[in-house]
Design goal:
This is Major facilitator superfamily (MFS) profile domain-containing protein. The protein is an all-alpha fold. Helix content is about 70%, strand content about 0%. It contains 14 helices and no strands.
């Protein structure tokens, strides 16, 4: 899960910093692309200008279609935008690609945070948040390095391949969040999502609530055997009596309930003292 989400933020940051290397490269190929400083400013700023549209659409679509489908839609938009830029023959096509990427940024960014928050364990959310920030920084470093040493079309194609990897991960591996499925009344799908995420028998989002082996035993196998033999030799002995004998013999202090539990393995049950109500005068009269 973490790899797929981090790939999404990696591509998000690559699109954010793409123009830092794209515009200088385009100016070097002035014979192919003719544009002025105003058009260059449009290419650099349109990505952030249209991002609020993606945020609004993402918040609406994620409630109706789910977090997973919204992220998949965002990655598809990113792929279309990268293809448009990589195959562009004029400035208008690059602008269209940047607009599509800006909308995709809003779709994936807001939904990615929601998806991570609903799918991760509360104790691990801090680590997941840090990994997403690191992915953003790595994406900026990666696109700047690719744009410096490679042709701008090659760098765009490499960014496109990263988005394809993230898309395939969400399509074939990542489940829908159980929180959204429960909100829609799809309880069976929510259980299946938790099972796929945590594994059978661990259908919980909290590490503290998962099944564990339990507390360590207070007595050793030899002490358990002593309690069972004492219970077998003295069938009328109470749990308090057996507990006292165990303490005198081994020095181990345990509860009466622990002593009652040990003979259960061989079918013996320590007896509790029988408490009967006191007889009233009318009871005595009824006996006469």
């Amino acid at each position: 899960m973490l790899i797929c989400v981090d790939f999404g933020f990696l591509v998000y940051s690559m699109g954010l910093s793409h123009t830092a290397v794209l515009i200088p490269r385009l100016k070097e190929e002035n014979n192919t692309f003719t544009f002025n400083d105003q058009q260059a400013a449009y290419i650099a700023s349109v990505y952030s200008i249209v991002s609020p549209v993606g945020y609004v659409l993402g918040g609406t679509i994620t409630d109706f279609c789910g977090r997973r489908r919204t992220i998949i839609l965002g990655h598809i938009c990113y792929i279309v935008g990268w293809i448009a830029i990589a195959a562009a023959q004029n400035i208008s096509t690059i602008l269209v690609g940047r607009i599509i990427e800006g909308v995709a940024k809003g779709l994936t960014a807001i939904t990615g945070f929601v998806y991570t928050d609903e799918m991760s364990d509360p104790r691990l959310r801090g680590a997941f948040s840090i990994s997403m920030k690191i992915s953003v920084l790595l994406g900026i470093l990666l696109i700047l390095g690719l744009g410096t040493f490679l042709h701008w079309r090659t760098a765009t194609a490499i960014a496109l391949s990263g988005d394809i990897v993230a898309l395939l991960g969400f399509v074939f591996y990542m489940p829908e969040t159980p929180s959204w499925l429960v909100r829609k009344g799809r309880l069976r799908d929510a259980h299946a999502s938790l099972t796929k995420l945590w594994g059978p028998g661990h259908e919980t989002q909290s590490i503290a609530d998962r099944p564990r082996e339990g507390r360590p035993r207070k007595t050793t196998p030899g002490q358990d055997r002593y309690v069972r033999l004492s219970a077998r030799r003295n069938p009328i002995a109470s749990a308090t009596t057996l507990r006292h004998d165990l303490r005198e013999a081994t020095g181990v202090v345990v509860s009466s309930q622990t002593v009652r539990n040990r003979p259960h393995d061989i079918g013996l049950y320590a007896r509790r003292p029988l408490k009967t109500p006191a007889l009233r005068p009318h009871h005595r009269c009824a006996r006469a």
